[in-house]
Amino acid sequence: MNSDLVKIFQEIATLLDIKKVAFKPRAYEKAAFSIESLSEEVGEIYKNKGIKGLEDISGIGGGIAEKIEEYIKTGKIKEYQKLKKELPVDIAGLTQIEGIGPQTVKKLYENLKIKNATGLEEAIKKGLLTTRGGFSKKTEERILKSLGFLKAGHGRYYLGDILPIARDIIEKIKTFPGVEQIEYAGSLRRMQETVGDLDILITSKYPSKIMDFFVKMPGVVEVTVKGETRSAVRLNLDIHADLRVMSPESFGAALQYFTGDKYHNIALREIAIKKGYKLNEYGLFRGKKMIAGKTEKEIYEKLGMAWMSPEIRTNNGEIEVALTHKLPKLIDYGDIKGDLQVQTDWTDGEHSIKDMAEAAKKQGLQYIAITDHTKSLAMTGGNDEKRLLKQMAEIDKINKSLSGIKILKGVEVDIKKDGSLDIADEVLVQLDVVGASVHSHFNLSEEDQTKRIILAMENQHVDILFHPTGRIVGRREAYKLDMEAIIKAAKRTKTILEANGSSRLDLKDEHIRKAIEAEVRIAIDSDAHSIDQFSFLEYGIAQARRGWAEKKDVINTRSWQEMLKLLK
DNA sequence: GCCGTTTTCGGCCCGACTGTTTTCAGTCG
Fold first, then answer.
1. Could you tell me the CATH number of the domain that includes residue A259?
2. Which of A246, A385, A436, A538 is the most core-located residue (most Cβ within 10 A)?
3. Which parts of chain A have pLDDT scores under 70?
């Protein structure tokens, strides 16, 4: 229901944009955004509090509330259907093609009756864009390129794939003569799950020289934009990179502006206006006078709030909290002392227990829990009770031979279809850390899946629910699950929820935030399967920061002795 | 269409780059 309405309102916004209606499009966009970040179904809100309840949602007033009511009652919105009839095209599909916006969508339909990306491609093949469409050859080429880019599946990249590459590129640009300050901004600086492109900011006395270096840098395949202060290129990994050169007085303003996100920035600029200022990427101004811009901190402070970490800049309440100076002190990237999910070559990991322990120590960790798979996961050679006991004895031996790192005995026990576990309680009780997780029967109904998992959480030995929703970024959707019920059960059964730092990134940030609000603790794990994968902890911490987690909310920020006290 | 510690009416985020525009519209971030 919510996601349908989000799509409809976004589409209404674009349709009104096309008709050049003023201001209404922004109102519909805002409403869509509000609904998207809602934790409750609008249907529930309407049922409990009626149309008044809907109007209490920010960005939703009388008009849109009525439309939601209409949708709840009839399953459709007349106004939307009317607009759609005038322009019956796949707007979202077309506008996601770079360079195509609302007006181009209209032109494509009116001149050529093009309704979607496939139709567009066919029209280009027939040469219709230039012959009858009223488009120039250059525009046609640009659209064709964007289509190819989209078809290759290169939209957004998983954070963990792109962060190391971005850091390399920054190092490379640092070597250009004349580069002073350099930072990356955008979704990468916000450490979002996925990153669309690289936004790099530089200060330099020689902007045009820097631009020349940048567009000729090794790895650049194509230059899409080149100007005095901004250039954009496509790199050989099909990643777009944007470079902007700013003056030092404006560096903080630019960093703030290009870090975003968009909604956070809009909210900030609205606050600036109310205070009689103007905020842009060059600074905060009163009239012509610049009153802040050198650092992000001074801009936030002049706007009446404390500086906040990029990870939480989403306009999901952080601005309101910042205005009252009650921002959470987010967990820091160096705060994790131990890793509670680690696989070894006893199952599907690549390296031995000892190698993993030594690698963890090198990474600065004080302890790890070995949590190999169990027998239900036959493809990984999962441990049965007997082999698990043998592994525990082995860990005792290795612990005696190592210093500076403690190895805890653990398991990633498989939750069977009926919610029971595939390792006997008599063995589980002997372990330090029991993580339980789902690896099969992803297609159960929400009710059955939720019941199944809660049953496992009720086991007195299950300390942590590993990767609770089963999703993998860009690869696999989460299974259907009543997250609210899971969080409630976690509280009741004293089960820790995991924030998995591998490409699962599971729990998601919004669920972490809800868990913490419900005073459920989390564990940030790497789920490392080889010695180089402890670096995944960084992404797990980012995830937790986006979920507003503080150090105290995360059990493995404690020493292993203190951490164990928080388990069942 | 929404909203209010200047307002229940009159505002609504801001600027760079591109194209074919000779003064601005479209798109993007």
1. 3.30.210.10
2. A436
3. 151-155
